[in-house]
């Protein structure tokens, strides 16, 4: 089964998608990491964040792969360089919404994501995985949470990395990214009509994972009975 999990920044998608994939024995694909890698390479190569052609070429040529890491989330490699930390830097985080709105970038990465999803069952997470990348996914999930709660989660993550940013600044950054990601013309962040809608503001990670796993199992059972 393909499970597509979408939602705004800080709604818990990565943690939850990884745990759902682990519980169901599925591959996990972080589509945001691909947009982040293009942003990092553009910055390093001095490419303008306005240049659709040049950004599109970076996305088309992107040699990205993931490697399992028993100590945490999969590591992200561009060729043989581990960029897992750099793609999560503040600089990349602040620019990735701009880069991901470019049509040529989206076209190249969407094709790549569909090819990966065609290889077998997986859990994908991002902004448009249920609406555009895999519209026929067996289960679509839309995760949300209040901006205050999302900022608080981001602050905790950053503090673990020794970075201190005020809650107000984080809330402002999140609202800005939300407006870019939901307001762009192409593949904006939207809840798919049929998505399981989970507001995670007051839910624990375990509760969210359990809700998704049980829905996936219920649908899997229905499919088997239909055969
Ligand atoms: O999930 P994330 O924060 O790592 O995603 C980074 C950015 O990439 C996000 O602000 C919007 C973009 N993105 C996208 O446009 N489509 C996706 N499927 C995944 C991410």
Describe the fold and architecture.
By secondary structure, the chain is of the alpha/beta class. It has a single domain, classed as Rossmann fold (3-Layer(aba) Sandwich). Helix content is 53%, strand content 17%. The protein is built from nine helices and eight strands. Strands 2-6-1-7-8 form a five-stranded parallel β-sheet. The longest helix has 22 residues, at 205-226. The two termini are 15 Å apart. The model has no long low-confidence stretch (mean pLDDT 95). Bound molecules: 2'-deoxycytidine-5'-monophosphate. 2'-deoxycytidine-5'-monophosphate (DC) binds next to α2, α4 and α8. 2'-deoxycytidine-5'-monophosphate binds at residues 9, 31-32, 35-36, 96-97, 100, 126-129, 177, 181.
Question: Which percent band covers the strand fraction?
Answer: 15-25%
- CATH architecture descriptor name: 3-Layer(aba) Sandwich
Output the CATH class name.
Alpha Beta
The rounded Rg comes to 17 Å
Average pLDDT figure: 95
Q: Poorly predicted ranges (pLDDT <50, ≥5 residues)?
A: none
- The CATH superfamily bears the name P-loop containing nucleotide triphosphate hydrolases
Number of helices: 9
The helix-and-strand class reads alpha/beta
Distance between the termini: 15 Å
Which fold does the CATH topology refer to?
A: Rossmann fold
List the helices and strands and how they pair.
Elements: E1 2-6, H1 13-24, E2 27-30, H2 31-44, H3 52-61, E3 64-69, E4 72-78, E5 81-82, H4 90-100, H5 103-118, E6 122-126, H6 129-133, E7 139-144, H7 147-160, H8 167-183, E8 196-199, H9 205-226
Parallel strand pairs: 1-6, 1-7, 2-6, 7-8
Antiparallel strand pairs: 3-4, 4-5
Bound molecules: 2'-deoxycytidine-5'-monophosphate.
